[in-house]
Amino acid sequence: MSSAATWYFTKTLHLFTTTTLRRQTFLRLSRHLSTAPTTSRPNIVKILEERGLLESLTSETLKSTCSDLTNPPLRVYCGFDPTAESLHLGNLLGLIVLSWFLRCGHRVVALIGGATGRVGDPSGKSTERPELDLLALEKNIEGIACTVSRILGRCSGGSSENFVILNNYDWWKDVRLLDFLKDVGRFARVGIMVSKESVKKRLGSEQGMSFTEFTYQLLQGYDFVHLYREEGVNVQIGGSDQWGNITAGTDLIRRILRVEDVAYGLTFPLLLKSDGTKFGKSEEGAVWLSPSFLSPYKFYQYLYSVPDADVVRFLKILTFLSMDEIDDLEKEIGRPGYVPNTAQRRLAEEVTRFVHGQDGLDEALRATEALRPGAQTKLDSTMIEGIAKDVPSYLLPYDQVLNLAVIDLCVSSGLIESKSAVRRLVKQGGLYLNNVKVDNEAKKIEVDDIVDGKLLLLSSGKKNKMVVRLSS
Questions:
Q1: What is the pTM of this model?
Q2: Number of neighbours of residue 259 by Cβ within 10 angstroms
Q3: Cα dist. 301→156, 318, 349, 352, 365 in Å?
Q4: Nearest 5 degrees, angle CA 315-CA 321-CA 327?
Q5: Which of 417, 364, 444, 354 is nearest to 96 (CA)?
Q6: What is the DSSP letter of 438?
Q7: Which of 115, 276, 313, 355 has the fewest CB atoms nearer than 10 Å to its CB?
Q8: Is the dihedral of CA 170, 176, 177, 178 positive or negative?
Q9: pLDDT band of 74, cuts 50, 70, 90
Q10: How far apart are CA 324 and CA 332, in angstroms?
Q11: With pLDDT > 70 as the criterion, what percentage of the chain qualifies?
């Protein structure tokens, strides 16, 4: 076994514990909860509905079940297929909704699809996903487990008793095909499977659908059966594109276990902008949740750039601010004297703190202030290096930069396309060197301009920046 796999099996919270230990953990929780003092339990369904986080329910019974104190807390799971080493902003709603369940006193499971990730979910896809090699899959599982553990760990106050991370390869690795067909396949109805939206779209396309992908809904459906039977999980959540897979699970539970209205599905809307496009895609690609893929500064900046048309809705679905506070922010937007981007700043702060913690938010705020043109913060090389991976950079010999006209440096570095454009920018007051406004076209680079003798920061307006590195 590789060292990465060894770390994964031994260090990630509850990720690969045995079925017996997992069942004992849940039974322990049940006994503890049954003797806990009776207090009011917030109605999680109503909260999600109020905030725009509820798309569909498989049964209206869930609305009363979730707040009935005669019932034990719900046990809820959300699945994450390891298609990349990091989750992205599109996956964030799953973690947000799981966190709301935690806040309302329920228990949650994050399920990583170590088995189903080898098949690939066809939902929302026009072509079959490329097959992942096992080493890449293992690395993806490890990365996602770390992100989920970090975020849910903070939401649960550092206690791992309120959530568990599982991998469905744990039970699928021992399932034999003939046994599966006998124990599960005979309960599946092909007509229902074909009628699923994700299947109908693919069957009508030129590419069609492989049998492998066709079975995905059955595999995910059986995950719900397994989790219900072995772990007492009775709610599955997912994006609206997961409706077919979720109902496959509730249907199998009803048919195989012969029980009615005991397992529920809940979907939330996909994370879309007001124009219908996906929120979570930047010009460079996906907005990743892992700091090793995207810095907290860059993550913060993406959220800070949300347009006014979307910011209130995103405050409701991506933060835990009270609805009263969000309403106040919405009212402020339309009032005279409103400071632009106040709501966006609050959105960026709240979501960055949720994903990256207070330390990540502090890092993002320091970098944001340091890179603000006209800021009084004195730049040093450590500060510039900290954001260099998020902005373009250009390498030049030290002796070629010293005494070089700033206008020429802007053009040669690629920050601005022509000298005439640089001159116009200087006249408009939009060119900055190390956050200090350049107000003289004849300005040349001096020794004191070079930060710690090795770096320069050029800014064209507020957003376009260039780090110039100097070689000896």
A1: 0.80
A2: 11
A3: 27, 15, 10, 10, 10
A4: 65
A5: 354
A6: -
A7: 276
A8: negative
A9: very high
A10: 12
A11: 87
Q: Tell me the pLDDT tens digit for each residue of 402-418.
A: 999 999 999 999 999 99
DSSP letter string, 267-322: EE---B-TTSSBTTEETTEE-BSSTTTS-HHHHHHHHHT--HHHHHHHHHHH----
Contact present, 38 and 100 (Cβ < 8 Å): no
Cα 93 to Cα 112: distance, rounded to the nearest angstrom: 16
Q: CB-based contacts of 429: which residues, under 8 Å, 6+ apart? A: 437, 439
First to last CA, the chain: 46
CB 401 within 8 A of CB 445: yes
Distance, CA of 298 to CA of 371 (rounded, Å): 12
Q: Which two tokens stand for residue 60?
A: 């209206």
Mean pLDDT of 368-382: 75
How many residues belong to the chain?
472
Report how far Cα 309 is from the mean position of its chain's Cα atoms. 21
Distances (CA, A) of 72 to 32, 69, 155, 233, 432: 10, 7, 21, 12, 60
Greatest extent of the chain over all pairs of C-alpha atoms, in Å: 83
Q: For residue 432, what are the β-bridge partners?
A: 437, 459
The two tokens of residue 202 are: 């693919």
- In 3D, which of 399, 396, 416, 408 has the Cα closest to residue 456? 396
How far, in Å, are 16, 119, 131, 241, 366 from residue 126 at the CA level? Answer: 33, 15, 15, 13, 42
Buried b (16+ CB within 10 A) or exposed e, 297-318: bbbbbbbbebeeebbbbbbbbb
Q: What is the pLDDT of residues 177-211, one digit of tens each?
A: 898 888 888 888 887 878 877 787 777 777 777 88
Residue 372: burial class (beta carbons within 10 Å; 0-12, 13-18, 19+): middle
Choose between 2 and 234: higher pLDDT: 234
d(CA 11, CA 272): 35
Residues 468/401, Cβ–Cβ less than 8 Å:
yes
Please report, for residues 271, 284, 299, 313, the alpha-carbon distance to residue 281 in angstroms, rounded to integers and kept in the order given: 11, 8, 11, 18
Q: Is 418 helix (H, G, I), strand (E, B) or coil?
A: coil
DSSP track, 123-154: TT-SSPPPPPPHHHHHHHHHHHHHHHHHHHHH
